[in-house]
Amino acid sequence: MTAQPDPQGFLMRGSWRAGAVPSHRLELRGGTDAPTEARRLVVGLLADRVTASDLADVEVLVSELVTNAVRHGRVGEDDTLVVHLALGEDVLRVEVCDSGPGFSGPAVPRPRPGGGGNGLMLVDRLSTAWGVSGDDGTCVWFERELAPLG
User: What sign has the CA pseudo-torsion 61, 33, 87, 13?
Assistant: First the structure.
């Protein structure tokens, strides 16, 4: 397996909201099973820490970003992608990093005429903020404001 270098993670640390701190680094084998495994791990880590509604949306967001890493970043079964989680009392940040060629995220994601494009539309609608860094591979991140537990 090809592992991702650590510098790809938490690329925009200076832009985080106060209170979000690194909590988990997940290395996942690529390929078609990666989105399912990412959802399973993220749900397991966050189930008792965020509301059911937030968890459902985060599950969709993680699935979309990991699917894009596999599909567009060409992260196959012999490759590894990295998912970073940073959790605060009222915010969650997730970064999905791969060694793919990178891309420039559109200002306003729209479906493409030939199909596809819905993943970034969902990321745009379900997250508070998101972006792309291509300094070393590709890292797509999102932040989501969290509802209070309880």
Answer: negative
